[in-house]
TrEMBL record:
<dbReference type="InterPro" id="IPR000566">
    <property type="entry name" value="Lipocln_cytosolic_FA-bd_dom"/>
</dbReference>
<dbReference type="GO" id="GO:0006956">
    <property type="term" value="P:complement activation"/>
</dbReference>
<keyword id="KW-1015">Disulfide bond</keyword>
<dbReference type="GO" id="GO:0072562">
    <property type="term" value="C:blood microparticle"/>
</dbReference>
<feature type="domain" description="Lipocalin/cytosolic fatty-acid binding">
    <location>
        <begin position="3"/>
        <end position="138"/>
    </location>
</feature>
<dbReference type="Pfam" id="PF00061">
    <property type="entry name" value="Lipocalin"/>
</dbReference>
<dbReference type="InterPro" id="IPR012674">
    <property type="entry name" value="Calycin"/>
</dbReference>
<dbReference type="InterPro" id="IPR002968">
    <property type="entry name" value="A1-microglobln"/>
</dbReference>
<dbReference type="GO" id="GO:0001848">
    <property type="term" value="F:complement binding"/>
</dbReference>
<dbReference type="InterPro" id="IPR043245">
    <property type="entry name" value="C8G"/>
</dbReference>
<dbReference type="GO" id="GO:0005579">
    <property type="term" value="C:membrane attack complex"/>
</dbReference>
<keyword id="KW-0732">Signal</keyword>
<protein>
    <submittedName>
        <fullName>CO8G protein</fullName>
    </submittedName>
</protein>
<keyword id="KW-0964">Secreted</keyword>
<dbReference type="GO" id="GO:0070062">
    <property type="term" value="C:extracellular exosome"/>
</dbReference>
Length: 157
């Protein structure tokens, strides 16, 4: 149900990089492919220095439905990914937790979502102790649909 194309609408996070570079946010899309009925192949498309890049990641199924594990290098870089709420035809809210830090992302099937969906997202961010001052909104134009072979970052390690 989660497969297909999604637009990154908003993100709440205390990440210092976001705080310092929020003026440089780029329109971002994600394509989700369900592998073997459980794990997810994620392709993120966004611009970096005016070039379209694709970042490929693999979310492995965790202990419970709607929970995934994104592994990086070493044990310290694993990220727990949890589906907070989803209406597969309209939106998905994902929690990303690494250690004690948590981020919440809102994806829509279109780059603009309804006020009702934004209200749901704001309820989720407040529930984890985040607020409007650490919420970022992504551009609704200038999306990348693909990247050439020299601009693909493969998250498979």
């Amino acid at each position: 149900q989660l497969s297909g194309k999604w637009f990154l609408v908003s993100m709440a996070s205390r990440c210092s990089y976001l705080l310092e570079h929020s003026h440089q946010l780029e329109a971002t899309t994600v394509t989700i492919t369900i592998l073997d009925g459980q794990s997810l192949a994620i392709s993120t498309f966004r611009k970096l220095d005016k070039m379209c890049w694709e970042i490929r990641q693999h979310y492995l199924p965790a202990q419970a439905p709607g929970r995934f594990l994104l592994k990086g290098e070493g044990d310290c870089s694993k990220v727990d990914v949890v589906v907070g709420e989803a209406d597969p035809s309209n939106f998905i809210i994902l929690y990303y937790q690494k250690g004690r830090s948590i981020s919440v992302k809102l994806y829509g099937r279109t780059s603009l979502v309804s006020d009702a969906i934004m209200d749901k997202f704001e309820q989720h961010i407040r529930a984890v102790g985040l607020s409007e001052d650490v919420t970022y909104y992504f551009p609704t134009y200038g999306f990348c649909d693909s990247a050439d072979e020299f601009h693909i970052l493969d998250g498979e390690l």
